[in-house]
Specification:
There is one protein chain. The chain is mostly helical. The protein has one domain. The chain has 13 helices and no strands. The longest helix is centred in the first third of the chain and has 45 residues. The N and C termini lie far apart (52 Å).
Length: 355
């Protein structure tokens, strides 16, 4: 008679459940991404909601939530009217003059060496191929990289659903937290899960606010510098640079390449543009970003690069966008588990005195 080892069967059953869970996540990836966007949007509005909640007396957060949404929609409409129309006008104007600018830049530079003109011709040919692959529409090509990560929410239905989901996240956040804790009995495991959720909550709050501020800083810096220096389409370049800040590491690089291409074909001083880009990246990456991110995302650059490329391979632009917070949360889980194991190995009196 064949006997089945219970321990091996239990491990096999656990492995099967894990594989099934990953398969379900893959099947539901579109819906999960929408919920994740709604959750991140909720973290973005949370400071304003908390401020209004303290100012408006009442038992529920509904009035504060309603007022926060009104303020947010008003800001979006105002910025769209003030900035969006001008950006659209610059993009349309650039699309009309792009062929003539490109042809002028393609011609050999007077006084340049044959080798320099040859390298320039090769660059122009590569750019022409890249533009031709995108049906010749510069207006579509330039924002494509920066807007692709929100393609899931491109339909009006999803644009409406995400704020609604965020509303419920903000309204019932405490109830959701209590429901998760109620799944675990009182004891060390409950304390562990409570601390873990608090760390993840703090991480996501800091990360989203820092990401939005970094994008705003990039938009203001690029728009101001290029407009003051007379670089054509400065506001359009600023919007592209700000939007691409939402894609970790690869986004700023893509923004720099796009800005150099637009500046080159529009006849701007490339040296000045490149110096501005380099100076701002040093300022943002070594001063602004560490200050805004704080100690929330403690990841080595190699780990971040691996996560960004792995996220792109697994889920494209959405995977790249979510790679850094996912890795940061994985690090938090690892650190919490390691601390819990170390505390459990301590003698009784020592472990009691540390709690």
């Amino acid at each position: 008679m064949l006997w089945i080892d219970r321990r091996a069967a239990r491990y096999a059953w656990t492995a099967a459940l894990v594989v099934l869970a990953f398969y379900l996540v893959y099947l539901l990836r579109r819906t999960l991404f929408i919920f994740i966007l709604a959750l991140l949007f909720a973290y973005l509005l949370a400071p304003l909601v908390n401020l209004l909640d303290r100012a408006i007396p009442g038992r529920t957060r509904t009035p504060a939530l309603a007022l926060a949404y009104i303020i947010f929609v008003g800001c979006v409409v105002f910025l769209g009217a003030q900035v969006g129309s001008r950006v659209a006008a610059q993009a349309t104007a650039f699309e009309k003059v792009f062929p003539a600018m490109f042809a002028k830049w393609e011609s050999p530079a007077p006084g340049a060496t044959p080798e320099a003109n040859s390298i320039r011709a090769q660059i122009v040919e590569k750019l022409r191929e890249a533009v031709g692959e995108r049906s010749g529409s510069v207006l579509t090509w330039l924002p494509e990289a920066s807007l692709k990560f929100v393609s899931v929410a491109g339909d009006l239905l999803y644009v409406v659903i995400i704020p609604i989901l965020a509303f419920f996240f903000l309204k019932d956040s405490r109830a959701i937290r209590d429901s998760i804790l109620d799944l675990v009995d009182e004891g060390p495991q409950r304390v562990f899960i409570d601390d873990l959720m608090a760390d993840i909550n703090l991480l996501l709050a800091h990360y989203m606010r820092a990401l939005v501020l970094l994008a705003l800083c990039a938009f203001l810096a690029y728009s101001l510098f290029f407009s003051v220096l007379g670089v054509p389409y400065g506001l359009l370049l600023g919007v592209l640079g700000g939007l691409l800040e939402f894609i970790p590491m690869l986004g700023p690089l893509a923004a720099g390449v796009l800005i150099v291409i637009v500046a080159a074909v529009s006849g701007a001083n490339l040296l000045v543009v490149i110096l501005i880009l380099l100076a701002y990246r040093v300022f943002q990456d070594y001063i602004v970003s560490p200050h805004l991110m704080g100690r929330g995302v403690q990841l080595h650059p190699l780990v971040m690069l691996f996560g960004v490329f792995a996220g792109a391979e697994i889920a494209g632009i959405p995977g790249t966008f979510l790679s850094v917070p996912v890795l940061a949360m994985a690090r938090i889980v690892y650190v919490r588990i390691r601390k819990a194991r170390l505390v459990s190995r301590l003698p009784g009196p020592v472990a009691f005195s540390g709690t």
